[in-house]
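Repro:
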Amino acid sequence: MHNLDTLFLDRDGVINVKLDGQYVKNTDEFEFMTGAEMAISKLSKIFNRILIVTNQQGIAKGIMSDKDLGILHEYMLLELKKNEGVIDKIYYCPHLAAEICNCRKPNPGMIHQAIIDFPEIEIENSYLIGDSDTDILAGNKMGLITVKVDNEYTLSKWCDELLSIIQ
């Protein structure tokens, strides 16, 4: 049996459908990727914790507020809970790409903060799933096992592969 510790997930393009050139600002615009809800349900049972690390520069751009993002995340968490999917904590970077901050991926600040919040995290048994090179770079900087997904190779497909390996 593999020791699976923490699963870090990017949000847009991994959990929900990414909008081309736009930001998901409210629940009307939030659509789960195919199979993502069931995948998170299954993954919740085999990982010690699931954490989201997501860049949300729409806040710094004034397109949405922290409160808007909070409402969106509450909706997402409630929908996931219907299938017994559990997200333990959501980390987000509200800064512009042009700002120099440590939290915006590819910088690993959100992952670093998670390790402070959950000191029992075993990096060598933890994964980061993302759909962009910046996600993968952030995970690699922290020594996580990284997996890049897209509209074809989804979180759901990766989940099924993982389950077939560990069972």
